[in-house]
Amino acid sequence: MTPLPYAASINPANGETVGQYPFETPAQLDAALTRASAGFAVWRRTAVEQRAQKLIDLAQALRDSITPMAQMITLEMGKPITQARAEIEKCAQLCEWYAAHGPAMLLAEPVQVDNGQARIEYRPLGPILAVMPWNFPIWQVLRGAVPTLIAGNTYVLKHAPNVMGCAYLLRDAFQSAGFAEGLFEVINVDQQGVSNAIADPRIAAVTLTGSVRAGMAIGAQAGAALKKCVLELGGSDPFIVLNDADLEAAVQAAVIGRYQNTGQVCAAAKRLIVEQGVVEAFTARFVAATRQLIIGDPQSIETYVGPMARFDLRDELDQQVQDTLAEGATLLLGGGKVEGAGNYYQPTVLGDVTNQMTSFKQELFGPVASIITARDAEHALTLANDSEFGLTSTIFTADLERARQIANQLETGGVFINGYCASDPRVAFGGVKKSGFGRELSHFGVREFCNAQTVWLDRH
User: Fold this and answer.
1) C-alpha dihedral over 304, 158, 48, 232, to 10 degrees?
2) Distance CA 79, CA 76 (A)
């Protein structure tokens, strides 16, 4: 099949076309990279306090455009409108947090040396190419862009083709906030265009949030060009519930952690690993709570589960569910596509899942939860680590010391005790194993694309 010469966004609630955006020519890509490079030459010399003020201005611009931007998110990828508005407000708060705390993260660090004075300076690298996904079309971008910009770099966004309308609205917000040309560029290119951008000497480094396959491809190309890259990839995150856990709190967290954003979250609670003493009670409560979720029109403020973003992804998810059932799992709720218009999938709960089944071994990117029984806490830990992924994990238990001991042995980039995973600017976010490498947010996100430069003044 001949590839389309444009990026298309299709409303997953009804199949109607939202927009078609022609791919840019090599000359247009070249012009964008020229602007990003020229912008970097000025931005890197701009006082960090002025950069911080621009982030405050961006926060206001985001709030000013929250209604059309949230509407575009809902139209292009089906996120329920209340969650779309919350995503944009979270982005505004992200800007304000880095405006307040980012400058201190870039201060030189003095180092004690025997003969003279030394310090570590944090210098920006240059234009950063960001290949971003559709599931949080504003947050995922700004989670990387804001710390990158406060550090003095410029940002070149290549967004997912089904959310290009969101990309252009975000560009408008940067312009409304007074960011100069070249500081935040949006490019709309095909795979060859991405490869050309990575190889271009004006691009200093690359960041990608996406699938393992995409991460391997982008990582290989960045490596061939000897450019640093940060990869935030898939996840099949374990959610451990031990016998002494507060079941009501655990169920509430598991429902949010699994079904928010229609389950299309890399750090979602996908594998619910429950100690056998409470698995029956937990399962009954979890199924009952899941049954109460409102699935429907994402434009309704009552909706919690909307349509999945793409029809092919729904088909893939359904095949994974059917394979898991054929392997011996029990269908406790849902288990299929919703009849009628739209790309809807029933909120689904699979019971009696083992580590040999599809929904345990693979990432299920949609509203499907798998419940796995653990003999004891040690077995729960073994099951949690029995995955090629290692993004985040959760433990529910009343014994905090035991929780810390388990956390020390979990092979994940983040561990959340008695709460579901949160992407918060105050703490680092990223994974291990096939979930990728590098970190976003906190001071790690600021320094990820900095040159840690040693400056040593010798005394003779």
Assistant:
1) 60
2) 8
Give residue for tokens 């708060």: 93
Instruction: Round the CA-based radius of gyration of the chain to a whole number and report it.
Output: 23
Q: Which CATH architecture has domain 6-232+435-456?
A: 3-Layer(aba) Sandwich (3.40)
Q: Pick from 281, 207, 268, 298: which is nearest to 394 by CA? A: 268
This model's pTM is above 0.90:
yes
Average pLDDT over residues 399-403: 98
pLDDT, position 4: 79
For the record, the structure tokens of 308 come out as: 């999945």
Q: Which residues are designated catalytic? A: 232, 266
Sorted by where each begins, the domain ranges of the chain are: 6-232+435-456, 237-422
Q: What is the mean pLDDT of residues 136-143?
A: 99
Looking at the DSSP bridge assignments, the partners of residue 458 are 116
DSSP tag of 257? H
How far apart CA 209 and CA 235 sit, in angstroms, is 12
In whole angstroms, give the CA distance from residue 75 to residue 137: 12
What architecture does CATH give domain 237-422? 3-Layer(aba) Sandwich (3.40)
How far is the C-alpha of 344 from the C-alpha of 333, rounded, in Å? 15
Report, as an integer, the average pLDDT of 385-405.
99
CA distance 385 to 375: 15
